[in-house]
Amino acid sequence: MENLTKILIPRQMFLLLVLSTGLLNHVILIPNLLKASGRDSWICVLIAYPIAIIFIWLLHYIIKHSSHGGFFPMIRYRFGRVVSYLFTAPIILFLITSTYITVRDLVIWLSAYFLAETPVIVINLLIISACYFITLSGIKYMAISSGFLLPLVVLLGIMIAVVNTSVKDPNLLFPVISDGYLPVVKGVMYVLAGLFEVYIVLLLQPFAQEPIKFKHLFILLTFLTMLIFGPLTASIMEFGPIESKHFRYPAYEQWRILNIGEYISNLDFFALYQWLSGGLIRISLFMFLLGVFFAKNKRERLNIKLVTVLFLLLFSSLLIKVETYYFYKFIYLYFLPGIMMIFLSQTALAALIVFVLKKRDEHNAKNNKMESTT
C-alpha cells in the first residue's frame, strides 16, 4: 500500500468519482426519482443542475482556502479533536450507510437476475473479499483501475442509448408538470442527493498532487448529471412513465430489450460489467476513506487490522435479515433525503468556517504587519 498523501492527479480523482458516484446516480437514484416525480423527473434534473453549480462553487471556495493538507486536517488543527469529531461524524455515518446500501443493493440485483440459485452469503463473501483486497491495494490503484474500467462503461452506455433509439417515443416525456409542482420539488431533492456527492472531492483533497480547480468540479458535475438524465429519459421514452415507476432497475431493463438486427440479443451481461465496476470501486473507496478517518496517523499507511475489522463488521451487518420492501423504503424516505441534507449543511457550515478563518488570518496578518512597522 502507498502512503496516504499526495498520490492522485485531478484526472484520476475525476475517473474514480465518476465510476463510484455514477453507480448511485445511475442505479439507486433513478427508481426513487421516478417514484417521487414520475414523468416530471427529467424536468427535476434540469432544475437541480444550476442549483448544484452553486453547490460546487461553495465546495471550490472551501478547497481553495483550506490548508495544504485538506479541510478536515485543518479543522482538527485549528479547533481540536472534539470539534473535528463532531464535524466528521455525519460524513462517517454517510460512508458507513452508503457502503452497506451499495453492497445490499448489488447482492439483491445479482440474486434476482444472474445468481438466483447461489446462496446470498456466498455472493456477500465474494464481494466483500474482492473489495477488501482492492481497499488494501490503495486509492492510487483504484484510480488507475477506474481509468481502464470507465471508458468501456461509458462506451456501453452510449451503445445502448443509440441502439435503443428505435423503441423510444419522445412524446411520452410530455405533458410536464401535469400533477402540479410538488412532485417536481420532491424530485429536485432526490436529484441533488446524487449530485451533491461531489462533496467527496473534499475527502480526497489530501491525496491531490495538484490544486483542484473549479473546471474540474464543473466537468465532474456535468458528467454525473448526464448519468442521471440519459437513462432516466430513455426509460420514460421506452417504457412510459407509469411502467418505469414499477421497475426496480430501469437502467438494467433497457439492456433486456436491446436487439441488434435479427440475431443479436440478450446482451444484458454487459450490464454486469457496468454494475460490478461501479459497485466494487464505490465500496472499496468508501471503506478506504473510513480507514483513513479512523487512522491515528493520517500520513502512515492504512492499518490492515483496522481495515479487516471494518470489513468484518460490514459482512456481519449483511448477515442480518432485512426485508427488501423496508430496505428500499429506507432508501427512499430517509437515506437519499438525509444525504442531501448532510452534504448541504456540511458544505454551508464549512464555507462559513473557512470564510471566518480567512478573515481572521487576514486581520491578524495586518496587525502583525503594523506592529512590525511601528
Automatic annotation (TrEMBL):
Membrane topology listed for this record: Multi-pass membrane protein
Residue stretches spanning the membrane: 12-34, 40-62, 82-101, 107-135, 147-167, 187-205, 217-237, 272-294, 306-328, 334-357
Record localization: Membrane
InterPro entries attached to this UniProt entry: Spore_GerAB (IPR004761)
Signal peptide: none
Pfam family, one: Spore_permease
Keywords: Germination, Membrane, Transmembrane, Transmembrane helix, Transport
Similarity field: Belongs to the amino acid-polyamine-organocation (APC) superfamily. Spore germination protein (SGP) (TC 2.A.3.9) family.
Protein name, as recorded: Endospore germination permease
Organism: Robertmurraya mangrovi
